[in-house]
Amino acid sequence: MKKRILVTGGTGYIGSHTVVELQQSGYDVVIVDNLSNSNADVVDNIEKVTGIRPAFEKLDCLDYEGMDKLFTKYAGIEGIIHFAASKAVGESCQKPLLYYRNNLVSLINLLELMPKHNVKGIIFSSSCTVYGQPDTLPVTEAAPIKKAESPYGNTKQINEEIIRDTVASGSPVHAIMLRYFNPIGAHPSALIGELPNGVPQNLLPYVTQTAMGIREQLSVFGDDYDTPDGSCIRDYIYVVDLAKAHVIAMDRILNDKQKESVEVFNIGTGRGLSVLELLNKFEAATGVKVNYKIVGRRQGDIVKVWADPTFANEELGWQAKATIEETLKSAWNWQVKLRERGIQ
């Protein structure tokens, strides 16, 4: 009997790649997504990759009654991987209440429903934004949580606190919080990848869309930061490597391998790349030029951050394996495939 996992936001970018890895690892997957930043045809493409069609329900995690009914309909859900959230730093500064409602209430609903439906554990999609601008780099899980630079970052901090407080109160829930760095790239099949609705909020889709001619020009926000070339530095993690971390974490919860009821792991490569370095590597890896310009700084951006993934490497037995060149090529192959499919 396959163990059943609920993936919220499962037609989204990271969610869809994680569904593939879960299915290929023998899990039965149920996807919930309101399709606010994704498309239902992702389910078709997941099936093309794995040969298995995941169950899919168009539903908003803010809908408590709807979620309650879903757990009854798909009885025996043992674990949840919670991706469903609004995630753009810039937008969160403009629409803070949207972010607080979407990101906090969706988690609260799940945590209330889990004991009722005997769901053992949850993996929470957290972020390196909880560290703010770290005092020392690379950043470990022991680094202090800084005041958030954006409402988006603040929702991640508050959600981590909600999980800790819920477990501390005696709730039988187990949790692993994965603090991602910057996920990029696409599945090697080029059947799933990052395809946000509207204008991309993340760097690499904007790069590939500009390289394809869909966007006229990429804006690099600031070249006067305290970094070697003046642009912000991030730790870019291949999305498939990130997805695999969720499978390992779920196995850890369901097979009672946790050392504590709530655990935290950094999921990154341990390497920092500046925005301008990433653009240069993209052009070198693909042979395609990107039209970009330097503009002013963007509200909410951290100057530089990259992971110390040692704890995840040693305790989870997980590590990032893809090279940045392979990752950037996968993103471009995905963009080319979208053009072939007549998308954009």
UniProtKB/TrEMBL annotation:
GO CC, alphabetical: cytosol
GO terms of molecular function: UDP-glucose 4-epimerase activity
Enzyme Commission code(s) on record: 5.1.3.2
Catalytic activity: UDP-alpha-D-glucose = UDP-alpha-D-galactose
Keywords on record: Carbohydrate metabolism, Isomerase, NAD
Domain of life the protein comes from: Bacteria
UniProt domain NAD(P)-binding: residue ranges: 6-329
Any single biological process term in GO: galactose metabolic process
Cofactor(s) for this UniProt protein: NAD(+)
CDD domains, sorted: UDP_G4E_1_SDR_e (cd05247)
Tagged with keyword NAD: yes
Pathway(s) where this gene product acts: Carbohydrate metabolism; galactose metabolism
Residues in coiled coil: none
A Pfam family of this chain: GDP_Man_Dehyd
Matches recorded under InterPro entries: NAD(P)-bd_dom, NAD(P)-bd_dom_sf, UDP_G4E
Matches recorded under Gene3D superfamilies: NAD(P)-binding Rossmann-like Domain, UDP-galactose 4-epimerase, domain 1
Subunit structure: Homodimer.
Family: Belongs to the NAD(P)-dependent epimerase/dehydratase family.
NCBIfam families: galE
Protein name per its UniProtKB record: UDP-glucose 4-epimerase
Species for this entry: Phocaeicola massiliensis B84634 = Timone 84634 = DSM 17679 = JCM 13223
